[in-house]
Please model this.
Amino acid sequence: MKNSKKEGSFLEDVNYFLEKGFSFLKLEAKFPNQNIKERLITPDRCVENKVSILMDDGSTRLIMLSRVQHNNDLGPYKGGIRFDVEADLEHTKALASTMTWKCALAEIPFGGAKGGGVLDPHQFSNSELERISKAYMRAFADLLGPEHDIPAPDIGTNQQIMAWMRKRYEDMNNGRIFPGIVTGKPVGYGGSRGRMQATGFGTVYSAEEFLGGLKGKTVIVQGFGNVGSYAALQAYHLGAKVIGLSDPYVFGGKGGIFDEKGLNIAKIILEPGSVSANTPAEAVLCHTCDLLLPCARESVINLENVEKIQAANIVEGANGPITSGADNILRERGIKILPDILANAGGVTVSYYEWLQNRQGEYWEEDVVLTKLQQRMKQNTVKLLKFADEHKLDYRTAGYSIALMKVAEARHLTGAQ
Ligand code: NAD
Model:
């Protein structure tokens, strides 16, 4: 998402945040003559594959698909697949890099990867999407595997798409069963209970720990898709007053819903038609609140709108919602920000639980999954806050520093390449 202030790309922002971690840790001095910075910033492998998809009307469409494997020093590559018109290779590189740091910070034994398909999924029928999903698996099957690289859903993909991909991988392997080839599958087809809620709930668990509880706190949520709807629901259940929701694509019209008295999120999820958009989406985003949860997509808070943001605290449910320029300004204004690599790790955490369940062939109850998730999100948050406090760092630099040190130490142990 670009704006007229000519900010850098999402990838440049991720690398800018990484640079701050590198300079705090003085990593190049700690690991001299190892090219450590270059080795950790650049992806291990990037592959693009143009596929030809048969459309329902008999015509064909060319679609560019990609897989970026950023780093696997801590475990198999792991990262979702995004079907979106902006999901080009550079975008996918940025998302793959954030996966590496997210898994390292969460102490999950996975590396970082991401997949992209440059398309608008809303323009395709179900059967066309099935063909695209299976084509994705066919294109990258040699790079993927439960011990090597494990996709999951992201924007524009979902459980159904993961089911199609698993099936195609198994068909390509003579029908042998590989439930752990992808995560985020439907519960009836090797998925984990609690995966749907995991990212949104995880973001709120992190926020709850950060703010010492959410009871009575005013909350605004941007994006009402998978992450945003579950984040809003969990904040509501924990006693927060969710006063605003912003999602022009879900709510239509003005794009935002605002009510100073607080919205009944449980009802809105059950009956989305029970509310109508009454406020422009951007006005909701910029309204005063104790806690803003941007859960839509990257770069939505940028140099164009940063001065209007009135939240006291921001916890990032989406990947990269704040540009580097906006991040500096918000922090100068005293607004506290818990970064994406900490706060949206709930999804990959439960993906890890799903992968473990697939390996063990036993499936856990939902409350077991969500309790484990809650404990882990809270522990990770405490760890980051303590590190930031000890070293007088902002939370984002603290998160990147903890993660970088872990991966650098592992890469150092692997020797020269
Ligand atoms: P989604 O497609 O289900 O939901 C995104 C929602 O944001 C959509 O409803 C869309 O209409 C809305 N949106 C888009 N642009 C907007 C804007 N400018 N203002 C307001 N709303 C807008 O996707 P998701 O899975 O919920 O992912 C959202 C973000 O969270 C992405 O950055 C994704 O990478 C990140 N994330 C997702 C997961 C996961 O498990 N799904 C895990 C980690 C991070």
